[in-house]
Structures are given as C-alpha cells and as structure tokens.
Amino acid sequence: MKILIVEDEFNSREGLAELIGKISCEYVVCGKAADGEQGFKLATTLRPDLIFVDIEMPKLNGLDMIEKILAVGMNPYFVVLSGYAEFKFAQKGISLGVTQYLLKPITYEDLKKVLEEMKKKIGGKNTCNTKLIRQMQANDEAGIDTASLLVRKTVNYIKNNYNGRISLEELAEKLNVTPEYISHLFTKEIGQSFSSYVKEYRIKLAEKLIMEGSLKLYEIGERVGYKDPKYFNKMFKEVTGICPKKYLIIHKI
C-alpha cells in the first residue's frame, strides 16, 4: 500500500513515517510533503493509495488540497491528522469523502487500527472491475507508467554520477520521494537492489577500460567511482570472481 504524508511539522511528518514503517513493511511511504501545494503535486505524480493529511498547513490547507486532488479525477483514501476536534472540520471532511481522522498526538495502536481498516477498504477497491478498467484507461492515456518513470530517472542518475558519490538519499530528495520507496520500486522493477546495480554498472565500465589498456588499474578504479584501490579490488572480485590484475593478465593473453 503506497502512502503519502502531507504534514507541515517536520517532527510529526518524520515521526509518522517512522511509525508506519514499524507497523508493517507492506505499508510503503512513497512521499512526504511539507505543505498542501507540494502534497498535491506529489499525489498527482506518485498516485498513492492512501494520503495522511494535516488540516492547518501553509500555502494550501489540507481540506482544500483534498478537494483539489478529487477535482482532477483521483480517488485515493484520506486520513486527516489534526489537533482540532471541532465539528466544522469534520463536517467538511465528511463531505469530501474523508473516512478517518487521527487526533494528535498519534499513538501506535490508533495508527495500526486505521491502517488495517484502510487496507481492507483499498483491497476491496482494487478488486472492483470498473476501477481496474478505469485505471488501465488512465494509464493508456498517460502513455507512461509513473513508477517506471521514477526508475528510469534513477538509472539515469546512476549513469550520470557513477564516477563520483552516489547517494540514494540525495536522489530521493531530488525526486520528492522517500529513499525507502525508491529502493523498493527499483528492486521490484529491475530485479536487483539499488546498491547492487550501482556496483555492477561501475565494474562493467571498469572491465571495458581494462580491455582498452590505456589506464593503470588504480586510475580505472578512480574513473568508475572507487577512490580506494583496495575497495575497488574487492568490488571487482565480487562481481567478476577475480581481481582486476588477474582480469588484465587473462585478457592480455
């Protein structure tokens, strides 16, 4: 279940994400936003199943953000987070289809209960044929799957930064998603972990450079992102089964 958190208070936002991760690995926080406008943009990009949203936020409040999301034809589930218990907020939320509220401070048990209820609702929603047909039509019209786009951007990031520092956290920040979501999505679509892909990509380039024969081994290591020759040797052997020097000797014959 893909979850988006829209909450302007940093500690509350990060704390909720951490708490969700502790409850079950099947709940994936795919994005986090600090205001309603950013939340709307992430919602339309990531297409989450469930959105946790605060009421009082800068730029665009939570209920107005929900209204805006519904206006573009999206139909995720919403859980409103608030320190307010006033009826006027609940009344507007009900009119927008909000089915759950969580009053701050959020407890582990309350959150777990809400997630379990939402899981049942989302499970039923996904088995509805008309919903599936509508989603397929939307994908056809879009011409591209959002998740695949994120993975392609991840691969491009690796190709453009393989000779320097590669950070999953930095990439996730650029893409406005969480590192956990990118890692999960990448492994699911590519069939190997982010770190494993980076290592294999670098070593394949190193093999080509060794075959060219114009650089020394330590220079090749630096060229593909390994400044420490010992670490380069270790990574090379993990991928090819032999050290760079032996690889060079074999391919010189």
TrEMBL record:
Keywords: Cytoplasm, DNA-binding, Phosphoprotein, Transcription, Transcription regulation, Two-component regulatory system. Its main location: cytoplasm. InterPro entries: CheY-like_superfamily, Homeodomain-like_sf, HptR, HTH_AraC, Sig_transdc_resp-reg_receiver. PROSITE patterns: HTH_ARAC_FAMILY_2, RESPONSE_REGULATORY. GO terms for cellular component: cytoplasm. Pfam families: HTH_18, Response_reg. Residues 2-119 form the Response regulatory domain. GO terms for biological process: phosphorelay signal transduction system. The keyword Metal-binding does not apply. Residues 152-250 form the HTH araC/xylS-type domain. GO terms for molecular function: DNA-binding transcription factor activity; sequence-specific DNA binding. It comes from the Bacteria. It is found in: Cytoplasm. The modification 4-aspartylphosphate is found at D54. This is Stage 0 sporulation protein A homolog.
